[in-house]
Each structure stands twice: as C-alpha cells, then as structure tokens.
Write a structure and sequence with these properties.
By secondary structure, this protein is α/β, with parallel strands linked by helices. It folds into two domains: about 60 residues, Alpha-Beta Plaits, CATH 3.30.70; about 250 residues, Alpha-Beta Barrel (TIM Barrel), CATH 3.20.20.70. The chain has ten helices and 15 strands. The strands form three sheets. An eight-stranded parallel barrel has the order 7-8-9-10-11-12-13-14, surrounded by five helices. The chain is elongated and about 70 Å long. The two termini are about 35 Å apart. It comes from Anaerobium acetethylicum. This is 3-deoxy-D-arabinoheptulosonate-7-phosphate synthase.
Length: about 350
C-alpha cells in the first residue's frame, strides 16, 4: 500500500504518520521524488482501509494498493528512476556505463593488461570472476581469494572500480575492496544470499536466471531491497529457450518492460546472451537502442587460451573497435558514455 503526500507536507506530521504505522507493525518506507513524496507500507495491509487513512491524515493526497507482489522495486512506489552510484560513476541519469574484463581472473599479467586496455578504450568498470560456478565440476572454478587480490591490484593500477560474483554468503567478508557485488544467473533465487547482500550497502548487479520470468526477476530484486539495500542494477543476460544455435536467447524486450514497471537501472550482458563472439557487437548496439543503461562485455587479452568462455570473449582490439561504435550510438540516443 502506498500513500502520496501533499506537496510541502509538514515534516512533524510525516514523522507522526510514520510512527503511527510502525506501532501498528508495518514497515513504512519513504520515497522522495522530484515532484512528490510517497510513503509505502510493507506488511499485512489488508487490515487497512485506504480511504480511512486518507480522510484521517490531512498530509495525505491519496492512497492506493500495489497489487503486484513486488512492492519496493515497483515504479508505482518510486516513480523517479533510481540512480546507482559508484564514486563518480552513475547508472541511470542519462549515463551509459560499460563493464568489461575477462570471465575469470587467471593471473596478474592477464588482469592488469586487460584492465589497462579496457580503461583506455572507455570502459568504466572492470569485471573479472574470482569465484566461478561452472556446470562441470572439472572446469576451472576460479582463483577465489587470490583472484580477489589480483582484482584489487588491477583496481589500484588503473583506478577502475571492480565487480565480481559472489556465490555464497560466507564470501562477503572477503569483498571489502569490491565495488559492485554480482549475483549470477544461477543464484538469482538463492534467497539466503539475496538477504545477505540486502544487509550490506554495496551496489548489487543482479542477473536474470536462465528460466525465470520478469516477475520472478523483480521478486529477487525485492528480496535485496527489503533488506535495506536500494542500490540494485538489473542485468538481462539471455534466457534458455528451444533455440540451439545460440547459448541463450537475449530477451531484448525485457529492457523497456523492466523500465516501465520498475525504477531500477537495467544493463545487458551480450556476451552470455548468445555465447558467440561475432554477435556481441550487434547485440550491444541493439541494447543501446532499446534504452539500456549499460553493457557488460567479456574481454580477454588472448581469448583462444582463456580458461573460461573464450568463444564469447572479444580480444582487446575488437573491444576497442566496438567501444568506438558504442560511443557514437550512445551519443545519438542523447546519453553520455561513462
């Protein structure tokens, strides 16, 4: 349930309104937009009558029930776009960010070389996997804590913020130097993990699961936000369909749909979407056209020898060429790269 307040509502009355419903067992959440202030009530709101609340509180303009199961990530509750900030980097607000780096951190030379190159080409955030959930138990699983150490070295060397995937909640203590926590597709419905990152105040990039609907995707984001963490970036990375010629099928329609029903920024991972290097460029361009707030692109200094996902990774020259095209198309859409 949400209540929209009159412009210029008295602050003391707002505090009294919030206290009243806290005493009734609800969790009031305040969203201050550019034009209006909204107070959402989380809890068993079936016991409340919307009209009675409006009539007995003169600061309330009107109220309504949010019928969708996702409440906090719902644009009805938070009409203005959420801006996720990492230092001076902003997802949303007309900015367009490119996250790039290898699927896995393999050694110091590799991650430093890639970090320097992607920064020179215009990427604003460095990606690299330290913990790698793999379909086969015999595949490379990442360097774990040593991988995090190497990412920190690359961050110190280049100044790029870093993003890496957390696969279980016991790893959180090692993520102090990580700027964005990634929750991968396989863990999108790992609810204990979502609750844990909801308690921290680091930005979270949440990837859509291989078989999950948009509503299920948003409900996973709701878990994080219900824990108090509002800095969430949604990532569409392709879903599993009957198609076999690509690794996954990029649901390009997810971007405008997500931005219609939610206030959270949305990025696309074109590398995992198709799993084919030659398709990364056209899918990246399509992502810009439908309104994405950024891209996550896998880049490797020697894809042929990559320990993970070499077939979908761009080499450094290919990434540089793509960034030139991305810059032109982002500017055409009226956004700013970086």
């Amino acid at each position: 349930m949400m209540f929209v307040l009159h412009p210029g509502a008295d602050q003391e009355k707002i505090k009294s309104f919030i206290n009243e419903f806290e005493e009734m067992g609800f969790s009031p959440l305040v969203s201050e937009g550019t034009e209006r202030t909204v107070i959402g009530l989380v809890g068993n709101t079936k016991v409340l009558d919307v009209h009675s609340v409006v009539e007995t509180h003169d600061i309330v303009s009107y109220g309504k029930r949010i019928t969708e199961p996702y409440k906090l990530v719902n644009r009805a509750f938070h009409p203005d776009d959420t801006k996720v900030r990492i230092n001076n980097i902003v997802f949303g607000e007309g900015g367009f960010q490119v996250i790039s780096g290898p699927c896995s951190v393999e050694n110091e030379d590799q991650i430093i070389q890639v970090a320097r190159a992607v920064k020179e080409s215009g990427a604003t955030i460095l990606r690299g996997g330290a913990y790698k959930p793999r379909s086969s138990p015999y595949s490379f699983q990442g360097l774990h804590q040593d991988g995090l150490r190497l990412l920190s070295l690359a961050k110190k060397e280049t100044g790029l913020p870093i993003i890496t995937e957390m696969t279980n909640m016991n790893q959180l203590e090692y993520f102090d130097d990580v700027d964005i926590i990634q929750i991968g597709a396989r863990n999108m419905q790992n609810f204990d993990l979502l609750k844990e990152v909801g308690k921290c105040r680091k930005p979270v990039l949440l990837k859509r699961g291989l078989y999950n609907t948009i509503e299920e995707f948003l409900m996973s984001a709701e878990y994080i936000m219900a824990g108090g963490n509002e800095q969430i970036i949604l990532c569409e990375r392709g879903i599993r369909t009957i198609e076999t010629m690509t690794r996954n099928t990029l649901d390009i329609s997810a971007v405008p749909l997500l931005k219609k029903v939610s206030h959270l920024p949305v990025v696309i991972d074109p590398s995992h979407a198709a799993g084919i290097r030659s398709m990364v460029s056209p899918l990246s361009k399509a992502s810009i056209a439908v309104g994405a707030d950024g891209l996550m692109i896998e880049t490797h200094n020697d894809p042929a020898k990559a320990l993970c996902d070499g077939a979908q990774s761009l080499d450094l020259k290919q990434f540089d060429e793509l960034m030139k095209e991305i810059r032109r198309r982002v500017e055409f859409e009226g956004k700013t790269l970086g």
